[in-house]
Input
Amino acid sequence: MAVKDVAKNGKKRKQSSEDDAPAPPTMTVGELEMLSDEEDGPDAVSDDGEVDEFPEIDTRSDSEDEEFEGLDEGDDSEEEGDGYEEEDDSSDTGSLHVFPKAKTIVSDITGQPKRVYPEIEPDYDSDSSTEDDPNRVGNVPMHWYDDLPHIGYDIDGKKVLRPARGDELDRFLSTVEDPSAWTSVFDKNTQMDKPLTTEELDIIRRLYAGEVPDAEYDPYEPTTEWFTGKGKEEIMPLSSAPEPKRRWVPSKWEKQKAGRIGSQPSSSHPPPLPAPKPRLPTNSESYNPPEEYLPGEEERKEWENQDPEDRDRDYLPQKHSALRLVPAYDCFIKERFSRQLDLYLAPRIQRVKLNIDPSTLIPKLPSPSSLKPFPNYSSLKFTHTKGRARCVSVSPDGGWVISGDESGKVSLWEVNVGREVKSWNFDSQIGALDWCPRLDVSYFAVTVEEKIHFIIPPNVHGPVLSLTQALLAPATLPPAPTTPSPVKWVTPSTSSRSMDTPILTANLPASSGLPTQLAWHRRGDYLATVSTGGTQGGVWIHQVTRRHSQAPFKKVKGAVQMVLFHPLKPHFFVATQQHVRIYNLSEQKLLKTLVPGIKWISSMDVHPSGDHLIVGGYDRKLCWFDLELSDKPYKIMRYHTRAIRSLHFHPSYPLFASSSDDGAIQIFHSRVYNDLMTDPLIVPLKILRGHEIRDGLGVLQVKWCSRQPWLVSGGADGTIAVWCS
Amino acid sequence: MASTSNADTSTISLPVVFTTQTSYPLPSQKFMIPATWKRYQLSQLVNKALALPKPVPFDFLVKGEILRTTLAEWAAENGVGEEETLEIEYIESVMPPEKVSDFPHEDWVSSVSCKLQGQFITASYDGHIRTFDYSQATTSSVHAHSAPITSICLVPSSSALDTDTDTHIIASASHDLTAQLTQLSLRAPTKATPLATLHLHTAPLSSIASNTTGTHLLTASWDGLIGLWDTSVPASDEVPDLTPSERERKKRRREDEGLKKKVPRKAPLGVLKSHIGRVSKALFSAASGEGGGGGGGTAYSCGFDSTVRVWDTENGVCVHTISVFAFSSSSDSIKYPQTASEKPFLDLAPAPAPAPAFQHTVLAASTDRTVTLYDVRAPTPTQAINPPISFMHPATPSCLSSQQSSTHQHQFVSGAYDGIVRLWDLRSVKGALATFRAWPGAEKVLSVDVDWERGLVGVGGEGGFAVWKVGNAR
Output
């Protein structure tokens, strides 16, 4: 507490000294080093300190207060205990109590010097315990009386009033008058200032200096030998048991451990490489080399003219007849320095560097010329003048192409002449069209807004035509389905039928939007359509012979992009925006969900074997799925610079094509194996360019001719190109 | 090497031996020809050496290539040293083709024929057969088919009709699954009357061809069948009519078309069945006409199944099949045996020359942009199999035409989808002798017919019909 005070005082004093600079340094009483170095105006200090002391105490918490009080009290009791000013107490041990000092006088009687202690007066004053205690409170915390006008009670039970304390000015005056005021503290018990004793100041000084506060304690007193030393050794053993073997046999476990550490150094810390050794001197470096080592005049000149780094050796052999004639070596410093450099720059560890030829990392692919035939040039072009050629389809016999554009025109033309033979006009955009895969009948389906039209091409052989007509417009209509369907199938009457109008029309429910995709089952009886803009995902499966339509899904998560029938099994692929789901139509359950990792799927196609699926996205990715293998793509390829629009597997050749908004069509060789162990072989073959990009749209659909390696592509520029091998 | 410096080339001479198959042979001796000489100097040399009364321009073939640069440049390009003796064959130059006349059509012209003296016959996608005289006037027009006509041929006057030189029979094949015989009478007023319809095929027909005597016809169709027909007109239907509904439809169509009289329906003599895809062309060999009646003779056909087949029409069997193995088009000349549909053939023509080297050979145009010369004889073990000669085109060659002629023994004409008609010489493999663009744009050429007698090439296609003067007509 006191230390704190003093320290604080110092600080305050400093401040105050700065504030009121003219305060004169007055004489101080104690020589306290701890303070003296900072001491300027001790008088002003104590005053300031006390003024500042109170609010500090008041703001403290109770417990700290108590502590504080206790310390104060202790100080007081000590003070009461000694009463004297005792200087010579270093010889005294134990307590802080200072005994009355003895005087050595010469005895009158004996003539010997003797110690004489002061007389102990046997009155109450002589003993502190019998002193009249000014404390009227008892042993209670003094702050209990903080807000009372009195402190304790006297012997008569009267309140003892707090002694009046002067105001600030009085206090200041008293500090000026009293030279010991800066070493006095306020005692709450007695309600008055008390000067600190020398001992207390000494304690403060010691605490301040970081020493042991007890002045009596000697940290350097000599050791007392209790158990060792002369005459204290134990000679006889405590036990008569013989010394165990492990005391003198090397430890087996330590040896094993050391061996382990030594034998496997490479795991984390390979042993450092040995430092490079300096080259051994050769004959020519001898002080007396054979004559043949000595350079001739020309050699010497040549050596001197060379740059130091070009010389094959950095010295010239010299001959001295005796070793004592060898002069001091002039390159010593240089050589030492280069040796140091050698050591410093030498590699500490040997790094295992992978020397891989980058070309070996590229997978070995067969040359495209060995994978012929594939389409490699544009044989002819067919032009739709009015709008983008959205959709194309090639007849199952490979002879005819139908193409639809955005103005509602469907054209029928020969694959390898490109002459339009017939056209049909509809009043709205063509969404999709596809040829019925059956070979015994010949017709195709065209979707326009909320409608699916079935059309028979011209010039069909008689039996095929009659069979087609019997299929699409039978004399006796199939029985109406038991559950009413919102899809209405309409055939125009025989009289109004003509080659220019569809023979059969399926009216999808109102406001179901444009069916943008059409997928036939391989048997040619079922077809699936995907409408955009409608409810329930817009997926419909139609059966032509029964004239029945159904929506297979009550509700589909996400917008359906595309549907496909499995070529062999009763499976159904549904591509939503980010997933491809495979349903078993006969068991009516979900089989698999494929996650291609594409942000927005644009197209997909299934391999004719039914075991592989390719999915293309607007984010340029193409994923190849091995359906037997995993739900994750077997291969992800990103080779188009714009969104992929259409994909198609060739029905018989190992080829597939992808078209993109960058105006290019890419042809791939895609050989799959029956052997489950062999991965499919995918080889890029050819990039076909020729379609123009219009409004950011490139090639919108590609289809293969069934029997030739020929490709038909429809572009946003309104042209349909036939690419031949 | 002659090309080392200009100073050298002015003095260097190359040893040259001239050969020819024309009627202007030079004595076989070695000439030292300055390396700076071009075609013109060489031609002058030949003319002077022979002392021809009237100068005849010549073209010079060096190792299967027409000389278009100086000899020195040619030698430098081909790496021929100046010591080597060059064998130069010279042929009569082909005059640059000129357009004679243009016959615009409303629709595409699918087939043309210049075989008839004084007349051009065209068949169009609108189903009409038209004839024109040389003054560009339409002499007749008949709506022969309700669907596009794909091919026509003039049936040469056979014994039945050769008394009447103004009456000719035209055979036409169409998308409507029938072929038709139409009689064309050139006496004023010209008149065309349908004689008979030919019923066999179940898919559109791709071609029709007649033998040289005009006794027999061959039709090729998409259904893979080849029909063999005679040219007699039956008195009554040989094939029963179609199903009622079909007949109804036909009737209605006839009514729409303006009511034509019913013609007899003819049945084929035989069916040649071996192709496993669309047959694009079937024709008789040039020699088969002499065999006389009975359909005897040899026929060739080609199809999308990449085969060229040789038929014995008398027995109706396939004698020999050439399955195409593709040769890599690049120069490394590695063979890759391929699947069947490597070279779908679009057209076939007999090789023009009676010369022994080109006898029994046919030219076939395929979609891989080549016209290839095939030997159709059955291979014998002793005979070395040479790789077939291919004539490369930059676009799909769609049609071929050749005619046996004493003056143009090695030349044939091909038309392509890039609108360019090319005149080839069998000995000049690397480049065409002459090319011309039939119409200003890049309209597709669908049919060419060459008549060396008059030096005319009829070109039919997207732009209509045009007649060009080609060759050295006398």
Remarks:
- Residues 62-81 of chain A form the longest helix (20 residues).
